[in-house]
Amino acid sequence: MVRICMITLFLLATQLHWSFTHGSSDTDRKAYIVYMGEAPQSNVSAIDLHHNLLSSVIRDDHIAQQSRIYSYTKNFNAFAANLLSQEVQRLQENENVVAVFPSKMRKLHTTRSWDFLGMPQSMKRNHQIESNIIVGVLDSGIYMDAPSFDDKGFGPPPSKWKGTCQVRGNFTGCNNKVIGARFYNHASTTPHPNPSPIDEEGHGSHTSSTIAGASIAGASLYGLAKGTARGGVPSARIAMYKVCWADGCSDIDLLAGMDDAISDGVDLISISIGGDSASYLDNPIAIGAFHAMKKGILTTCSAGNDGPSMYSVQNTAPWILTVGASGMDRQFRTLVKVGNGIKKAGFSINTFSPNKRMYPLTTAVKAANGSLEPDHSPWLCDEGSLDANKVKGKIVLCKEGLIQDYVKQIGGLGAIVSLQEQSDTGFTFIIPAAFIDTNVGDKIEIYVNSTRAPHAVIYKSVAIHNAATPFVASFSSRGPNTISSTLMKPDIVAPGIDILAAYSKLSSVTGDLEDNRFDVYNIISGTSMACPHVTAAAAYIKTFHPRWSPAAIKSALMTTASELKIKDVQAELAYGAGQIDPVRALHPGLIYDMSKSDYIRFLCNEGYSGTALKVFTDEHTNCSTIPDIGGHDALNYPSMYLQLNSTNSSISAVFHRTVTNVGLKKAIYKAIVKAPAILKVTVVPEELAFSHLYQKKSFMVVIKGPPLNNISSLSASLEWNDTKHRVKSPIHVF
Q1: Buried/exposed 331-362: b ≥16 CB within 10 Å, e otherwise
Q2: pLDDT band for position 27 (50/70/90)?
Q3: CA 651, CA 342: separation in Å to the nearest integer?
Q4: Is residue 568 annotated as part of the catalytic site, yes or no?
Q5: Arithmetic mean of pLDDT over the chain
Q6: Is 139 considered catalytic here?
Q7: Alpha carbon distances (Å) from 200 to 172, 195, 283, 434, 504
Q8: Residue 536 host element (H or E)
Q9: How far is residue 687's CA from residue 671's CA, in Å, rounded to a whole number?
Q10: Half-sphere exposure of 99 (CA within 13 A, CB side)
């Protein structure tokens, strides 16, 4: 009888769990984050508060207990729970609740670069201070067997470190280089059978080593990009917060990782993750970064890989340093040669060396599947489009697309992919492959169609020097900023194309199950790769200026950035202030500093008030208590941006700024304005005289002009110059 009761209870619990987790068509439970403002007092149990609140809206104590996914208790008061729509409404009506927003799944934004940025191995460093810098990385985990994470020569972790190392599953533990590793898997749609901080994708190892990897000579990917792999601050420590899994990176886990990182004692946070947000209120990265800023921690984020589309930039809060991707002077080219003598250097990262002088060649149309639907083009070389008998043992010419594992499965030996828009980025494939432009592709097609036995060969990639750099990567997300029309994003760009760094042997080089290449290094592109370059540059500055605020470090990087040789059609909306110059940023001369109150003023200017404002500050702060500095953006930002409602609108805006002297004790800076004739830029006053360090001086910038009509944008700049320092701010009208 007891046995029957236990089974009955088990079945009932199983049914309750099923309905609780999955719901029905009209009562689906979904994951939400319930934000309640500042962290509660230490004598109050936040978990009890969260449970009691859930019980009051769910009206069932047991289901309320099952509903709660996670409680955030260290730096802010919030919890995650699976909720029904009516429960969300009840929570939103509760006076103690600031905001309730659904947890989304966000995605990862996925050597030579440091030399290109002017940071050779021999450069000046404060090694002892650098060794006390801890960088928190939110990513896919870390692969400790990669040589980049060797801790030879490192002492114990800094005394300020309060974090932990979760030794679980096949993760063997941390060391004195990687001093912390946590994992979060509270909202994955496919829970991991044996979760741990280990990196099974390679992304987290790549970004971490770009920031602070040890110097390893002879690093390469199957001989490509051979040289010394190192991070920008190789003596710094790494703390990994694994928030990304095979299905993405949940908001619940992101906020949990940031909460822990802030309390663990990290000095900077690097996040190469993003996703769409309609507001700062529903963005865990923006919320977490604000709380990090209050503790003096700068958060650097990738801008996204949705370029060259406009309005695609992500992670746009003003207290975040938003990074786009640029190209550097080393690129990889893959030579394609066909039987009639045509040669073309295509784009790819091809590690395969040909075993024969030539291979049979066909086109997707010639090898098309006879049963293909009329509206389905075989040129895309996608699933089911080709006849295996016509592909086996041949290289295939495709157009505008390639499903590489499909071509390999049906016996294809390689692929030449013709693109209308020329690529600037190489990708790794599981078969020999290369992107070429349409003009060459058309010539190859004519050759195949007019030749009895056409042949071709795809050679192993080689590194070439590209003098036309830096340039903005085509995939790098562009502005304007969709959340704040007064703020220009991205802030800056850094190398993000063909970056060699550490990887995980638990993932193949391509991440494809059909790929049998595994290495501790890989060459990857993305704003994910650009972001850690800027994080490392910020860490480098912090080793010389440990008391500088996050805004001061950000200002130093932006105002000393170098101009791009290759101008982008979207100008500053693509590259912000320009390409980082870490060495110049050590001595910026002047900085545009900001604190919590400055950002609150910005939020007030953006229309945030009342309950919404409590997401970022305590209940005692309101817009009436923040002094108004006036001006178009109400923010002391290093860039100036005006977005017009239409091309018929006249140009008219005033920007108020304050700079702090961090250069020479006594200095006189003169304003130098560069602007097109159509745009009048006036600086008042035109000269700033400083008598001591950390002295502040305010000025005003007035821009005026007629309607843009058929012109989409105007670019200008303001530079403060004392003959020793050039402090440059971009001005953009869109």
Answers
A1: bbbbbbbbbeeeebbbbbbbbbebeeeebebb
A2: low
A3: 53
A4: no
A5: 90
A6: yes
A7: 14, 10, 26, 27, 6
A8: helix 527-544
A9: 6
A10: 25
Residue whose pair of structure tokens reads 């104590």 in the numeric block? 61
Which residue out of 148, 272, 528, 729 is catalytically annotated? 528
The C-alpha atoms of residue 208 and residue 213 are separated, in whole angstroms, by 7
Q: Is 67 helix (H, G, I), strand (E, B) or coil?
A: helix
Of the listed 50, 67, 109, 139, which one is catalytic? 139
**Annotation says 650 is catalytic:** no
Burial 554-582, CB ≥16 within 10 A → b, else e: bbbbbbbbeebeeebebbbbbbbbbbbbb
pLDDT digits (tens, 9 = 90+) for 203-215: 999 999 999 999 9
Encode pLDDT of 582-625 as tens digits: 999 999 999 999 999 999 999 988 888 777 787 787 767 778 88
Q: Length of the chain, please?
A: 734
Here the contacts of 603-607 (C-beta below 8 Å, separation 24 or greater) are: 603/280, 604/634, 605/486, 605/633, 605/634, 605/635, 606/484, 606/486
Contacts of 224 (CB under 8 A, 6+ apart): 332, 349, 351, 460, 461, 463, 500, 523
Nearest to 673 by CA among 721, 724, 631, 633: 721
| CA–CA dist 522, 501 (Å, integer) | 6
pLDDT digits (tens, 9 = 90+) for 382-406: 889 999 999 999 999 999 888 888 8
Closest CA to 569 of 660, 486, 476: 476
Token output for 89: 């409404």
Reported as a pLDDT band with limits 50, 70 and 90, residue 434 is very high
pLDDT in tens, 339-366: 999 999 999 999 999 999 999 999 999 9
CA angle, corner 114, sides to 112 and 120, nearest 5? 100
- Here the tokens at position 365 are 């149309």
pLDDT of 115 reads: 61
pLDDT at residue 282 in the model: 85
What's 145's DSSP letter? T
Residue 371's CB is within 10 A of a number of other CB atoms, namely 7
* Helix (H), strand (E) at residue 216: strand 216-221
- Residue entry with tokens 């769910």: 58
* Helix (H), strand (E) at residue 293: helix 284-294
pLDDT of 4 higher than 50: no
Cβ atoms within 10 Å, residue 396: 27
From 176, 180, 162, select the one nearest 295 (Cα to Cα): 162
Q: For the chain, how long is the longest CA-to-CA vector?
A: 92
Q: Tell me how far apart the alpha carbons of residues 431 and 412 are, in angstroms, rounded to a whole number.
A: 8
Task: Quote the CA–CA distance of 700 and 599 in Å, as a whole number.
Answer: 19
Q: Give the chain's radius of gyration (CA, Å).
A: 27
**Can you name the residues that pair with 241 across neighbouring β-strands?**
138, 182
Q: Output 163-168 pairs: Cβ under 8 A, ≥24 positions apart.
A: 163/239, 163/260, 163/264, 163/265, 163/266, 164/264, 165/197, 166/196, 166/197, 167/196, 168/194, 168/195, 168/196, 168/197
Centre a 10 Å sphere on the Cβ of residue 462 and count the other Cβ atoms it contains. 14
User: Contact 714/679 with Cβ under 8 angstroms?
Assistant: yes
- Residue 117, pLDDT > 70, answer no
Residue 541 structure tokens: 């500055």
CA gap 621, 94 in Å, rounded: 20
* Phi/psi-derived region of residue 641, left when phi > 0, alpha when psi is between -120 and 50, beta in every other case: beta
Place of tokens 């303001």: 718
- State how far the alpha carbon of 706 is from the alpha carbons of 389, 490, 505, 571, 644, in Å: 65, 26, 59, 20, 11
Give the active site residue among 203, 206, 533, 732.
203
Query: Tokens in use for 376?
Result: 């389905």
